[in-house]
Structures are given as structure tokens and as C-alpha cells.
Amino acid sequence: MQPQDDRPLLFVNARLVCPASGRDEIGSLLVAEGVIAELGAKVPPTARAETVDCRGHVLAPGLVDLGAFVGEPGAEHRETIETASRAAAVGGVTTIVARPDTTPPVDAPEIVDYLMRRARDTASVHVYPMAALTKGLAGAEMTEVGLLLEAGAVAFTDGPRSVASSRVMRRAMTYARDFDALICHHVEDADLAAGGAMNEGELASRLGLPGRPVAAEALMLERDLRLAALTGARYHASLVSSAESVGLIARAKAAGTRVTCGASVAHLTLNENDVGEYRTFFKLTPPLRHEDDRRALVEALADGVIDVVCSAHDPQDVETKRRPFAEAEDGAIGIETMLAAGLRLVHAGDVSLHRLLAAMSTNPAKLLGLPAGALTVGAPADLILFDPDAPWVLEAARLKSKSKNTPFDQARLQGRVWRTVVAGRTVYPYA
């Protein structure tokens, strides 16, 4: 990141919303030397400060996107740290937690160091790397948890791959527990889901497409929850997509297992019917499910069973998406649209603004031990100013991501970020 501007920022007439403390009031906030210096109903003017009239719009902690694909190293044609961070800034994301399924994968301390140096030199937001859970993402041998943590990794995952071996997963959880490290896992039995293109069910049959059953997710999740209870490890199911899965998570939490889970904003706002006439930008991992499953996810978010909402940002180029549906690559971009798409749930009355922001900022920051997600004096000044009611139509060509495979192209959205601040420095709008 570039050196921050040392000029203080004074936000006035802002709706201060902090999901960590429950604060929701009209007031002011002063940023000085990269941190929040003062906030409240009345903050006195400060010499040299740039004053920003927020006009009653929401001033909240910056979003923390847990599990985005940033392209580097090896897939710079799909995304780079620079382009991903520019997209993040537009969307109000001040911290990207990057997946390790790159080429080579992030399974050694020197690759973690490389990513951190690249982020320091090219990113406009914070970028933290997750390390591979197994060497080469092969699922056979666990990585060096302690050394990777020392190098700067914030969690462990094999990205969109599941560890099939229960023995390997138990060993990884045991070692991670000893370091109090977080394991994030993709919950899908690869054998059972093999060859599937969309959610298994009536719609897949009518479209003539092979299905991926909900049972493939539930089987892997139930195994992991048993292993988490056995080892005492901190475990996060990266992306759940079904009513059955949230039921399993709820029971595990009630039993005292150290488990959390996430869902993508696409799975909370879209369903299998959006696939329509074989629209490949809606081909995701896990697949979009039945509307009943989507409603169950929304209720689980409102009830606190789902802890994290993420973008599941997975850029794909034109050659891999504009193919027959069953042959197209999975994945969609989402880092720039995560907040606006999530606000659909708020406007529909399904989820409170505080709950949504907690799932997008406070909770992922707490899980990873990051200094983010709260409006408190002395906290890093990672902030977003947004109008939750501003209407706009998304045009894919205008997105900052290098790839344009968004499922929200031409969607009518409500909620626009006006300013993003990282460590006291305005990164959007761009200088």
C-alpha cells in the first residue's frame, strides 16, 4: 500500500453504524494518523482536517472479504492483486483474505512472503493470505502450520477443494488446534458431486444437466463437524448452501463445537432458477440451490447461525465461461457487488443492517484476529461511507475486476459506496 496521507479527516452528519458495539446514531468521526481519533454525537473541528459532509449516509467499518481469489501468482490473466483491490475499494471492502489455490499454491513460507510483498507494493486495500491446508492442495500431506503462521498466513484452506481423507483432516485439525489456527474448508464430497453441473433436482432434469446433490455437501460437513468436536480445533465451513447444512451447523454450535460457517452473497440472493437458459455466469461452486434452501440461508443469517457473508470472488476469463453450461468453469466475481447485493436482504426486511455488516466485517475480522470491523477510538481507520438507498444498474463492462463474469449484470441494485478509507487514506474515489 502507498504511504497514507497525514491530513486528518472529519466525517460530519454521518449515521455511525458499528455492528461490534451496536452503535447506530447520527454523529461525527475524526481520523488522524491512520486511526479513529474520536467519534460521537459531537466532535469538535480540527485544524487542517478535511471535512466530509456525509448527509446522513452510513459510515461503517470497512468490509472483510473472507476467501477471494486474487490471481497471483500464476493466474494474472484472470485477476491481479492490483485489480482485485481496486474492485474491493469500489465495493467498500477494505480487507481481502486471499485464497491459496494459485500456481504455485500458497503452501510454503516464501510464497506467503511473496504475496505480502506484492500486496504492499500494488494493493490499495489490505490483503492477507490464507495458506494451503495440504501440500500442493493434493489432500495427502498437511502443510507446516507453524511456519506458515509465522510468515503471515491468517488461516488454512485448500480453496475450492475438499480434503477427502478423514485421517489427513484429523491430523491437520489437531496441529491447527495447537496453534489456535483457523481451518476453512470447502464442504463437498468430490466423488458424489463429480460431473455435476448444477443443483440436483427437477430443474436440472428438465434442462438435461447432471446434478450435484445437497447430500454431497451434508456428508462432508457432518464428517468435519465430528472431527472438529473430536479435536477441539477452530473450524469454519467456508460456503454452505442448503437448509440441511445450516441445520447441522446449528446443532454443532449448540453442542459447543468451535464451528462457524459462511455463505456467499450469491447464494443468499439467487437460486437455481436464475440459471435460466444455461447462463454460465450462474454456474458456481457450490451450485445455486432451490429457493427453499436460499430462504433457509437467509433465516440462518438473521438468526446468527451463518457467521460470515463473503463474495466468493472467483474471476474467470471469457474462454472458460462462454462454453456449453456443463463444460464452463465454475465461479463468479463478486467483490465489487457484495455489499449492494447483500443490501437486497435489508431492503426486503429479511436481515437487519447491523446483522449484514457484522457478517461482512466484524465477524470475519474476529475469526481471523484482524484489527478491523469496529468503530472504536484507536482502531485502524478502515471505513466505508455508503448510501444504502441509492439505486443503480450494474454494467459489467464498468467493473474494476479484470474478469467480468458477474451474475448481476444489468441487475437493479440499491446501495452505493461513496467513499472508502484504508488506514486513514482515501482509496475510493480515486485521487
Automatic annotation (TrEMBL):
Name of the featured protein: Dihydroorotase
Domain Amidohydrolase, chain residue ranges per copy: 350-428
InterPro entries, alphabetized: Amidohydro_3, DHOase, DHOase/Allantoinase_Hydrolase, DHOase_cat, Metal-dep_hydrolase_composite, Metal_Hydrolase
PANTHER family named in the record: ALLANTOINASE
EC number: 3.5.2.3
Gene coding for it: pyrC
One term of GO molecular function: dihydroorotase activity
Annotated Gene Ontology cellular component terms: cytoplasm
Domain Dihydroorotase catalytic: 56-245
GO biological process: purine nucleobase catabolic process; pyrimidine nucleotide biosynthetic process
Keywords: Hydrolase, Pyrimidine biosynthesis, Zinc
Database matches in Pfam families: Amidohydro_3 (PF07969), DHOase (PF12890)
